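User: Continuing from earlier, I have the next pair ready.

Assistant: Great, send them over.

User: Here they are, in order.

Assistant: Folding the first of the pair now:
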Amino acid sequence: MSVRMAPRLPLIFLLMIHGVSSADWGVSYRHAHICALKNSSVIMSCTYTYPTERQIMKVFWSRLLIHGEEPPDLSEDPEYRQRLQYLGDTQQNCTIRLSHVTQKDEHEYYFRFRTDKPDGKWLGKPGVTLNVTDLQVEAPERVTEGHNVSLTCKSSCTLTDRATFIWYRNSQPLTERRDRNNQLLLQSVRREDAGRYSCALHGHSYISPAAHLSVTFHPGADRNVIVIAATSGGLFIIIIIIIIIIIWFIMKQRCVKTEDNRVKQICDPSEDTYTALELKSTTSDLYDTLTTVRPRPPEDS
């Protein structure tokens, strides 16, 4: 006994007539996962398709799925009403913008649309998973003067949009440090580099909590300066002494002279020159004319 299976052609033909083939229905999301910065605005881009003979009656987003019930419209939720903006249309575009996101907004979001037929509705599942992150500066508590240090602006998930990082020191932007790299490299740090460092993304108002960086004193640096200064000072003094000795020697050579082998001029520290007379060689002719006078006897009166 053989079992004959019913032909499937009538069923296929019926599906094609009503146009409910899954190939005609669908929702496509640009990103299945989105990592957004806290307090930023998130764009959830999507498109949807449906049979051309159908007319769209309602489009909305939801984050709650209740089995057997119609999912609630997110735009009617008090927590989302002021922050949710539908950027799409009733034809193909179903993009929304969600502003001022926080960690409470971390959910999976779905797009839902209904047509003019009772069976003509579709839910884009799986949806878009949203993760919200803040920024944290990872830095060593202290670094020794003259060393290199790297600071990292960290997030809990990889940001979906390309980000340009901005760094701050003591709430003042480091304008020379604006890069797509989330690291700040400080080379040969000085005491002036100490302070409170924070980071942000260009175009966003959120700024990370500050991390304090301390720069400790490096004794070797000042010791080297002292040694160099002492060495330089010692060399300077030695050069001055040598110059003084040379000048003194030259002056002494000029001061020591003889005059007719009788007069010598000798330098003295208290006066420039003085003359020493040699009495043995300076006998005057006056002394040669002196004669011995003997007493004469008295005359008789």
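And the other member of the pair:
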Amino acid sequence: MLLMLSQDLLAQHLLLERKIERIDSLMDKYASNGEQAKKEAAELYKQLTTKYNTAAFRGFKIDVMLQQAILYSLSGSHHQALQLSLEALDEAEKFKYPERIYRSCWVVAIMYENGRDYTMCRKYLDKAYRTYEANQLNEVYSTYCIRMSSYFMRVEQKDSAQYFAFRGLDSALKYQNKRDIRDAYLLLGTLLAKQDYKAAVRYKLLAADQFIQIEDYATAALQLTVASTTLLNQHQTEEALKYSDTALLLLQRMNVPVPPLVYQRRSEVFEQMRRMDSALYYYQLFHEGYVATESKQEAVRIKQISEEYQTEKKEAIIKNRERQILLISLLLAVISIAAVLLYRKNRRIRQQNNIIGEQLNELTKAVEHKKVLLSELQHRVKNNLQHVISILEIQKESVDFNNIEEVLRGNQNRIHSMALLHKKLRVTDTADEVDLQKYICELAALVKESYDISSKRITLEVNCNVEKCSIAKALPIGLIITELVSNSMKHAFKHIGIGIIEIELTKDDATGLTRFYYADNGEGFDFYKKSEKGLGQEIVMGLIDQLDGTVETNSQNGFELTIKFA
């Protein structure tokens, strides 16, 4: 039961992580996907305050609150953005989430920076740094550096801004924080424009490349246009024209509307080159695009103001109605107490019925989900028990009371192999996967320790670069390891004081085959020669057939076994 609950919780966590990552990706291209990002963030926040309103999901709620704050800021609602980010910070501090406290601090700092309150901006950046230092949040240090660089650029301390931009870039590249890498390139492209224009152009190109990678072609074209302007200011007209051409070609090939700024800067390039016809042509395009953009933005602003007005109007109507209802209720209370009490009672019953109905629907869904999980678990247990029964049936015919302890220990290790497999199992949307590296390391050590040969020094070396594996493959691999390690511990080191057992599991990218290699430095044996005393070799051969694998063995210097399978 606990296993089923933990698997259900893990699946819910993975689902929420994917939804938050999707909103992040939509926010990266806010110009085209901003409304969709707002919609999905609002829907997810609603779920986190209703369906997922438990302690296990508090962190996700804070993450979505910060996303909503940034979206409010991008749409110009700075007051709402600041209020929501401060609420997220309070939640993170209340439940002691260091990484989320850190993130909330720099989001709050952005809001104050946008509002030009640089004193408060610096206050929260300092708080973010203290949180980073106390909890060693090295992987996200780059974000603090980027925000400090932006702050120093706003207060016109260019040297400090450059210092933090370079530090942020180094940290972002080290931990591959894509958003911080883009922001660092943008900052350096701006900060170095007068001091080292060639470096500034280079960083603008790198920023453009980053935006192309996330398919934000409009922003990429704007970075190329800014690079063109930087070159134009240095009277590098031919180079400036090349970058302007590249920006325009990128937008045309990707069928993206051309921002008016691209036409404006292109007109300026042609004007400096004394090509007045082209300059006039692109200036006209700029003017048309500018007017269209302004009209569109004005329409958006009018719509936003209208929606706010309608909302306020509805709220006023609701408040007036509430006052009227209250007054009428007070006037009628004396003569109709019984009716009012009955009405309240009926309303409470309806609300409770609605709540019960919703809970019943959720419980029904949960029961159906658990039935599926239980069915899958029963299927696995049935298959594993069938393995054990088959082995016991074969051993029943050849059991010897003199070696019954070895038989029991071997079967115990086989069962441990299957139990450990289920312990390492993780359920995903598409398949059941096992953390193979941890599984074979723990299994090999478990089998080795079960024989506890204190007079021998036996070393176990395990190397696995195959991270995940389906349970259909992991089970026979685990049983093969169990049989081989058991055989080595029982027979290989009888006349050797120091023993070495090597296990390797690697993936050949060229052929797509997985290679399993086992070796010990003990007394070798003929793998294909049937043993009359035990079933280990027959079990291993059967498991290899189950993997549909090919076998190579060597018994000259100890024992070596190589299996290749798809």
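Worth noting for the second one:
Residues 189 and 350 are 62 Å apart (CA to CA). Residues 193-304 form a domain with the Serine Threonine Protein Phosphatase 5, Tetratricopeptide repeat fold (CATH 1.25.40.10).
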